[in-house]
């Protein structure tokens, strides 16, 4: 099939690459950013996503994936248009829809993957239909919602081996086309869940809301466990083995971050409030998470008796989760801001996110970035683990003890075993476990 | 010889007796161009004082009196930092607090470095709190700040922060002043120890009202915080002229903000006592407040008497009080954000000039400070305006209003905005209508309605003098100007009456006697020293 993909950030590139890989003729267009077609063609991508560069390069080489800055070319290329943009580009999406309305010349199927406000698909469809009517063009218009559920770090497999495909469509012909398009990814069992466009749009928000709530509740339970000297890890085993609960999203930690997860929940809360409704629980979840991002700071604050001035603190992990270079809304950012504001000095290491953190932090003093995880520990009063990169899980404890001025670890991801660290002589503080403080 | 026997005073008395004093305002308004002659504008402030029973000659004679009383010299002495508070042997340098290093001379210039230093320290604390980096004992950011202070350590910050309520603040502010503890116990129910910071504001740091509330706050913190050092370092800031007393109470030096004995309590919102203001609107906003006041200071110091707003308004008060025998003053803001302005001015004016002894210690032979009160105008219309319109005494009124509201977007045409605009226009219409009816009385009744007002109960004598003060918008800048204007006007009147506007001995004795009374409540054997009424009252408390 001929497909035009609008948007060349993570979602757009994964979609374009994956669809080209299964034989489609794909034209992808950057929307609203400064990405250069030439860079994209050469695999110079805005995101450092595992496997993505290889995928894009191979599809470009094989001729099934092309890039263009010309929307008109994209509109002329196909009758199937994918909107694959970050949620904050909804204004640009309006422009794309307007362009389609003004210049498309045949039947149109728009598949919106982006997380735009509820009702967007209906609105876009009405808008194109109106434009067609004004132009006297008789052609079929269908806008469906197929929210993406990809995560940074596992985006390609999330797209190509989805748990399910949520499809909001009220048009049988469109549904059939999309089933065919997604058939290679839906081969073993039929995982396409067809529903109304609004239900599909809401499902995306609801999934994020539920996950965010679960994380925040687990964090709160962990924080409270500390007050009773209970090891949350033991409780987690007890909880997860209950079939009604399960083990997913049950790790306590120093909060969730990322460019869109919290933003989507926030957007839902905002939409509800603007209509005069409230979302007390979700507001509390978001607030709770912001507080949780500083959980390690608070432990250090108490450990160092309300005075962090002149303390040297190592930070392992800056990205909001492993396997990504993104620091947007990351707990590390908030924690480092708090430490430096108290006069502490931070030495940070991250396998990938150093550059993006440097861009965020700018020329301000207080933070040194190093290229070696052990180098970060030289002469520090404590180590904070903010991201559970694999290489942090079983480090060289002896070297750590040797390099640190004080063997103190604040673990924001609960990746260490208290008894092991104790045997090496560490003080260990984690979320819902470790030494009491 | 008292000022009442002086030639300028006598000339005014003659002028008054010759008929000007008994003229009706409606009559005076038959002369053309009255408003252009009896109004002044400066920066964003416009003052219409035409609705006073004055003529050209009145103003000229009032200025003669001002000159005779050496007002220009008195202004100079005040702003240069000479001793104007003789009973306490010190200057009153509130103008130096807001000069920010500019246009000052004398002692006012000498103190600039220490003023700047404290402003810097205040900025540091305010920024730390506003940015969420001031932490409570568990490490959470402070979300609620409680100012514990009374009188000047309460009214100024309360009034300004309330007036600028539309500016969003990253922390919630609360004010506790009353000694009885009700405010404290009500407030603490809703606050969390982890995230609450107290400002103890007291010039002497011995004020029993403030210290007793502070003890209650400390007890409340101790319910959760085992470590007293953490309580003091993370949950209290002290603002005082006595670092020694703050030390004794346990406030760490880093948490102490100083001011000086040459700042009068009721003139202290410009000093570190203004910390709650800086927390509300940011340090830049606080400096705008200072700049607005400084502009008024400059106007006061450099403008000739005839065009000097605080001087003209002060002298008109003298005319009303001492020659027209009017002893009540109502402050009537037509904007609910200015709700606390009347209580603020009650202290400023009545604590400054509520005195009956001249600087030389002689009893005055004339009236001084009027009784001042007030209320948000539109609300007062449904309360005490009846007395203004038809009561037995004359009342001077100050109508105050912003001409535009800047708290809603003028380009945004939502229904709500339209309604708010409409409401603002309604408020202004009421403001202008009330001052007009108070001036004209029956003459304001249109011909078509005359028949329906033909009744002794519907008679409006009018002739109530008033000023109308318009500011462009209600902002830190205009508030600074407005408050400084009232301060200077108050001083002008004190100079004419030859009293010390900067001491307050009247409030001292009561404090002493309260201590004795408290001891008697604790120990009934001390009761014998009291009069029968007090004794009986105490016995009703302690059976």
Short description:
The complex is a heterodimer of chains A (437) and B (543). With 437 residues, chain A is α/β, with parallel strands linked by helices.
Explain what this protein looks like in three dimensions.
The complex is a heterodimer of chains A (437) and B (543). Chain A contains 17 helices and 14 strands. Chain A has a six-stranded parallel β-sheet, with helices on both faces. Chain A has three domains: 2-195, NAD(P)-binding Rossmann-like Domain (Rossmann fold), CATH 3.40.50; 209-290, Orthogonal Bundle (N-(1-d-carboxylethyl)-l-norvaline Dehydrogenase, domain 2), CATH 1.10.1040.10; 293-430, Rossmann fold (3-Layer(aba) Sandwich). Chain A has 437 residues and is of the alpha/beta class. The longest helix of chain A is centred in the middle third of the chain and has 31 residues, at 197-227. In chain A, strand 5 (108-112), helix 6 and strand 6 form a beta-alpha-beta unit. Chain B has three domains: 3-68 and 303-497, Glucose-6-phosphate isomerase like protein, domain 1 (Rossmann fold); 95-279, Glucose-6-phosphate isomerase like protein, domain 1 (Rossmann fold); 508-541. Chain B has 22 helices and eleven strands. A six-stranded mixed β-sheet of chain B has the order 1-2-11-10-8-9, with helices on both faces. The interface between A and B is medium-sized, with 13 and 11 residues.
